[in-house]
Design goal:
Radius of gyration: 13 Å
Strand content: 15-25%
Distance between the termini: 18 Å
Number of helices: 5
Number of domains: 1
Strand order of the largest sheet: 2-1-3-4-5
Shape: globular
Helix content: 40-55%
Length: about 120
């Protein structure tokens, strides 16, 4: 499985990347919403679409809300997680996120959220 971590804070990206790697995912990173759109488009065109995208809400330039809207408009099928310490979650769901996660995250919370978001496989 593949994931994209989007956060303007390098330390937050690194912490989340390490947790996802521990859970067995291949992880790419982007530092803002525009870079996330480019990464998702590149992955899709290469046949390596992301299964999960974890995106901070508060980023300079293109924020997480608008990036999520544009990802959905572009046809991205990944499960998109809002990761924020400030949002209540409702606004995130309206913007096209599948799941809202409150910072700080633990490995167990992350694992449970990912498992809950995936369809059951026969």
């Amino acid at each position: 499985m593949r994931a994209l971590v989007v956060d303007d804070d390098a330390i937050n990206r690194e912490i989340l990347r390490r947790m996802l790697v521990r859970l067995g995912l291949a992880v790419d990173e982007a530092s803002d919403g525009l870079a996330a759109l480019a990464s998702a488009a590149g992955a899709m065109s290469a046949g390596l679409a992301y299964d999960f995208i974890f995106m901070d809400i508060s980023m300079p330039g293109l924020d997480g809300y608008e990036a999520a809207r544009r990802l959905r408009t572009a046809g991205v099928k990944a499960k998109v997680f809002a990761v924020s310490g400030r949002d209540s979650g409702l606004e995130s769901l309206k913007a096209g996120f599948d799941v809202f996660l409150q910072k700080p995250l633990t490995l167990e919370i992350l694992r449970e959220a990912m498992e809950a978001s995936m369809p059951l496989r026969p």
